[in-house]
Amino acid sequence: MTQGPAPRPLSDDALSHLLGKQQFGTLATVKRSGHPHLTTMLYSWDSEARIVRFSTTVDRIKVGHLRRDPRASLHVQGGDVWSFAVAEGEAEVSDITRVPGDAVGRELLGMIQQAAKPENEDAFLEQLVAERRVVIRLKVNRMYGTALDING
């Protein structure tokens, strides 16, 4: 059996680029048992601040996990099954957005890509309040990942 090429580690810039071009990833939080809790999430990457933001509702289990143990990771798939990026760090959970247009609501609105901005911003901000939305901010202190260069 022939040994194929080894995966190559991605640079910090390549990892940041991969995080920036994807929208979905798997968020891992820590259950009380110590086992990982995994969930697919839509996210927004702020490369300058090195923060991954997620929108969720306050009653989700991941919110409870993060309030108890802030350690979390985001796994993002690259363009093929052999490439990926992982962003690790500690997360904080914002307050609930309580008034349409408050700071948390504006932060949630800012996470939406320009092409997907809601037509009726006021109605959107009211919906965020009704859903009891929060922002999870994963402050990234370590990134790693690989790619596998296969010709043909």
TrEMBL record:
This is PPOX class F420-dependent enzyme. It comes from the Bacteria. GO terms for molecular function: coenzyme F420 binding; oxidoreductase activity, acting on the CH-CH group of donors. The keyword Ribonucleoprotein does not apply. It comes from Streptomyces capoamus. Pfam families: PNPOx_N (PF01243). Keywords: Oxidoreductase. Residues 12-143 form the Pyridoxamine 5'-phosphate oxidase N-terminal domain. One of its GO terms (cellular component) is cytosol. The keyword Oxidoreductase applies.
